[in-house]
Design goal:
Largest sheet: 3 strands, antiparallel
Radius of gyration: 22 Å
Order of helices and strands: HHHHHHHHEEEHEEHHHHH
Mean pLDDT: 84
Shape: globular
Number of strands: 5
Length: 347
């Protein structure tokens, strides 16, 4: 790993992510992670585009033109929606505003970013989801004769049944699953909002089987993390990277038996799929909104719109039209770049 060319840039990134956001802003870990992701993606894009190592990155390379190019790349190559694009821009602007207060010479960069336009959003834009047959095909992939397969299958079943966000799943404790005549799961959502969702009897059967293997003898009131990984004999909370990895693996394996498996199977796809299936089975949008923990009903209208849009596309396809789509999954490479990111808080 080479010497850092612009020490001020990396020092400010470190202080922003490691001290300012958590200590002064009192930002939640999820918020900090979102800012970190935005900065890391920007850095990766600029260094790759310029053919340089991350250590050679400077403030001068992060001008408004470069940021605009990065945002266009998110939309064109990563297939990010307008909401994601605008969120990345907001995160980058916030960092540069902080950098300009710490080092006045950066004011010009911060001011230039205000001219990068916010992209207009279609509030009823299409939503990706899987048919029930696709979900079923994925659930059949894990080898439940192994500990890992048993864990992975139950994780997917619970994630689908609850329509939980990935972080809500990872935060689950044993005591959050309540058995009984009407079993429920208690989820800690965005803004520390708690909601309770019902569980299917079949899900509870898988839960009991999972507990007997991974948490034998534990009380139903235990505060232990429900899902974990073991490294060197030590239990650690499961990360979203672990979940994304095994979902992609099972998607590849299921592709031969079920060609309609999406190219990019990710955790949030289970949430959208569950909501869509509930809507199609006749559940009122108000209940779906409460189930998903949406702050307002309008957010849930995407499912009604998506159902109507799919019917329109089916008619178009039957008349000779084509429905296309797909998202490329980038390869993950570990090298000295990762070490540098860890040093300065980008990982």
């Amino acid at each position: 790993m080479g010497q850092v060319k612009d020490e001020t840039l990396f020092r400010l990134v470190h202080d922003y992510l490691k001290m300012y956001l958590p200590q002064q802003r009192r930002a939640s870990p999820h918020t900090i992670k979102a800012y970190r992701t935005a900065m890391e993606q920007l850095f990766d894009y600029i260094t790759k585009k310029n053919g340089i190592p991350i250590a050679s990155l400077t403030f001068e390379m992060l001008d408004a033109e470069a940021v605009s190019s990065f945002l266009d790349w998110l939309t064109a190559e990563k297939k990010c929606c307008a909401n994601t694009r605008n969120h990345r821009l907001a995160c980058i602007r916030a960092f540069f505003a902080y950098a300009s207060t710490c080092a006045p010479e950066n004011v010009t960069y911060s001011a230039a970013l205000t001219k990068v336009p916010i992209q207009k959003q279609d509030k009823y834009a299409g939503v990706d989801y899987m048919d029930e047959a696709v979900v079923e095909a994925l659930l059949k992939q894990p080898d439940t004769q192994t500990r890992k397969g048993l864990r992975d299958q139950f994780f997917m079943i619970l994630m689908y049944d609850t329509a939980a966000r990935i972080q809500e799943m990872l935060d689950l404790r044993i005591c959050d699953i309540r058995p009984g005549a009407t079993p429920t799961a208690t989820l800690l959502g965005k803004g520390s909002k708690v909601r309770t969702v019902p569980l299917m009897p079949e899900t509870m059967q898988h839960f009991n089987n999972y507990i007997s293997v991974f948490h034998p003898g534990e009380s139903i009131y235990s505060q232990e993390t429900l899902f974990f990984v073991e490294r060197r004999g030590q239990r650690l909370p499961m990360s979203d990277d672990t979940v994304r990895y095994f979902l992609k693996q099972y998607a590849v394996e299921a592709k031969s038996a079920c060609p309609s498996i999406p190219d990019n199977v990710h955790p949030h796809l289970f949430r959208h799929s569950r909501a869509m299936h509930l809507y199609r089975r006749g559940m009122d949008l108000t209940l779906i909104s409460q189930w998903l923990g949406h702050a307002n009903l309008e957010t849930s209208l995407i499912y009604a719109h998506a159902d109507t849009e799919q019917k329109r596309q089916a008619i178009e396809k039957s008349m000779g039209g084509k429905v296309t789509g797909g998202i490329e999954v980038p390869k993950y490479i570990v090298d000295d770049e990762t070490l540098l990111k860890r040093l300065y808080g980008l990982r």
